[in-house]
Amino acid sequence: MVTSRDVARLAGVSQSTVSYVMSGRRSISPETRRRVEEAIETLGFQPNAGARALASQRSQVIGLVVPFAPGADMTGVLPFIETITKCAREEDHNVILATEDEGAEGLTRLSDQSLCDAIVLMEVGSKDPRIPVAAGLSVPVILIGVPDDPAGLYCVDLDYTLAGRMAVDELADSAHDRVVLLGYPRDVLARDVNFVRRFLRGAEDAAAAAAHGIAYAEVSPPDTSRAGAEAALDEALAELGPDGSRLGLVVPDPQLIQPTLQSLLDRGLVPGRDLSVIGLCTDRTAETSTPPVTNLSLEPRDVSRRAMRILFRLLNRESVPTTSTVELVTPRLTLRQTSLPAR
Amino acid sequence: MVTSRDVARLAGVSQSTVSYVMSGRRSISPETRRRVEEAIETLGFQPNAGARALASQRSQVIGLVVPFAPGADMTGVLPFIETITKCAREEDHNVILATEDEGAEGLTRLSDQSLCDAIVLMEVGSKDPRIPVAAGLSVPVILIGVPDDPAGLYCVDLDYTLAGRMAVDELADSAHDRVVLLGYPRDVLARDVNFVRRFLRGAEDAAAAAAHGIAYAEVSPPDTSRAGAEAALDEALAELGPDGSRLGLVVPDPQLIQPTLQSLLDRGLVPGRDLSVIGLCTDRTAETSTPPVTNLSLEPRDVSRRAMRILFRLLNRESVPTTSTVELVTPRLTLRQTSLPAR
DNA sequence: TTGTAAGCGTTATCAC
DNA sequence: GTGATAACGCTTACAA
After folding, report:
1. Cα gap A13→A28, rounded to integer Å
2. What is the pLDDT of residues A282-295, one digit of tens each?
């Protein structure tokens, strides 16, 4: 292993000079800088992370707590992981992973062992038991998701309330007379992630808005399997409107979208011809569904980037927007093949 | 921050005794152990990771290099990340993430900065430029994937050659008389991941086997989009066999499966009724495709677990199977709705 | 502009 | 069975 002492010896300077050349925390004469950088280059010196962390009290690591809970939407988390990792690297930081099933201890471990300088907590529940713990840690914590009580922590998330509203509004505006929301399955409800109720509230609010006067109902599939979708659809389609009535289905669970589309096709109901379907999912998921589903985007990359922006401002002791602790990203509606043509 | 010195003071022992109680590397009297453990408990002591790493030359961290390259199969990597992270935690290790786009420097960084004790390298290419670098690092590297020259590194992967063979054999055994392989799209080919050619070789070998005498062809879609699938199918279906002939489609790219199924349905061809489709993907993907596709499983969890088992044997200086440096996992065939019924 | 030296919080080698 | 104490490799006052 090559250390900064080796570099110092080769460059004919003191060890601290090497350190200062690397950190830029004091001015160095051009000549010295050149010699040191040359020595670093020829020796291939890389500073020891542990030693650096110990001395500087900064690990240059971001802790990322991901939801690997059974039933969690797998396809959805990857863009978050990817974007967060890349943002971290841009600021010369690394990312260490922890899984949701470690619970609150996972957080204290990351923080108290000085494994990281800040934590990003994904998919927080409404009354997530980790929130009070997170608020008491010695490292800043950014939440992706909005708990009932953010406890002063910064939160970034999609504006699910707006998403719910947009879904219903879109259907109402395009002359649908009935909206059925295929809710989240039981296991998602059990995890009590906050976005569920936010989305539902948005949808309900929009449906209740006087201007529309649209029929609105919610059904809950038992799970995201084909059978779950079937059961939900049985209920949703039970009382079909009069011939020529326009039905819109809203499917907020990405995992339920494809099974729902398939069940509809199996029944001879073609989305985009016989009824409308609006999904809440990433554009990627929407593009590759069969048929491509009109969707409200989840914008995982945008959400992640904003979270990391706040995080690094916090770490660099820069000013952080103090107006609100909650930052919401506006979803984007993209019409695809599952929307009924205008009447 | 509470240190082992604080614990030692409270327990009335020396700092080294605290260390030995935690590591169990020397015998401690029951009474001393009790007092120390009590002190740890009341103070909530957590050892500083950086200091520990510095002193012990062990970071207790596993580096995981994931393929976030554009075009990489997103859904596929998550089970790997999850399984690897959990295996690491079981052995009291953490996981630090690096992305493929960091290239070989990413590896040297992880190793030379002593950020981790071992590296897992996912989705290695046939002539991956990172392999020679990996072989020269001071930490062990486990490959997921099999390069042309493993350079003595341990590799774990699905047996893609066997998978290719199994796909064609299954179709041949179920009285199909024509097999078309919808190959990997250009961007996957460009990445030159080794499994592509292994799968193709397996399929070709099986097709060539005298016993079958089955017509075999390969077509390459430009990409995994709907349009890509369309183009590939145009070619694949160009010369349709005589009426009543049994065609089998093999689709090794998970991302191409759904677009292909959709394109077939659009043409009025129902998989499982008019032709067979066999996909190479995780069971989860197969279950939720429309219709559920007969598949050969990618077994990401099994592959990951085996990789981690080798890794920790290496770290613990236990004996490692020396017979071969390459460990291949057998894919599993599951018949679903896209297989033609027996004639 | 540069050097000296005191930590940072562990681990592990001696000694007893 | 336990206690001093010297590393581990870096950062950062404090001097010069």
Report:
1. 11
2. 998 899 888 999 99
Residues 54-83 of B with CB under 7 A from strand C: 54-56
Predicted TM-score (pTM) of this structure: 0.95
Alpha carbon of B305 to those of B95, B159, B312: distances in Å?
A: 14, 15, 11
Beta strand A215-219 with A178-182: parallel, antiparallel or unpaired?
Answer: parallel
- DSSP per position, A276-307: EEEEES-HHHHHHSSSPPEEE---HHHHHHHH
Range list of H helices, B153-274 = 160-173, 186-191, 194-208, 226-236, 254-266
For residue A44, the chain B residues in CB contact (below 8 A) are 112
How far is it, in rounded angstroms, from Cα A337 to Cα A334? 10
Q: Give the tokens for residue A213.
A: 């006067």
8 A C-beta contact, residue B116 and residue B87: no
Which residues of chain B register pLDDT less than 70? Answer: 71-72, 210, 212, 240-242
Here the tokens at position A218 are 């919610």
Q: Check if the beta carbon of residue A64 is closer than 8 Å to that of residue A120.
A: yes
A83 touches chain B (CB under 8 A): no
What letter would DSSP give residue A193?
B
Q: Quickly state the pLDDT bin for A240 (edges 50, 70, 90).
A: low
Furthest C-alpha separation in chain A: 89
| Helix spans in A44-100 (H) | 49-56, 74-90
Compute φ and ψ for A165, nearest 5 degrees. Answer: -65, -45
- Strands A326-329 vs A294-296: parallel, antiparallel or unpaired: unpaired
Give CA–CA dist A118/A124, Å, rounded.
16
**Residue A255: both structure tokens together:** 């995992």
With beta carbons less than 8 A apart as the criterion, state whether A264 and A270 touch: yes
Cβ contact (<8 Å) for B51 and A54? yes
Note whether A294 and A259 are within 8 A (CB): no
For residue A273, the distance in angstroms to the closest alpha carbon of chain B comes to 14
Chain B residues whose CB is inside 8 A of the A123 CB are none
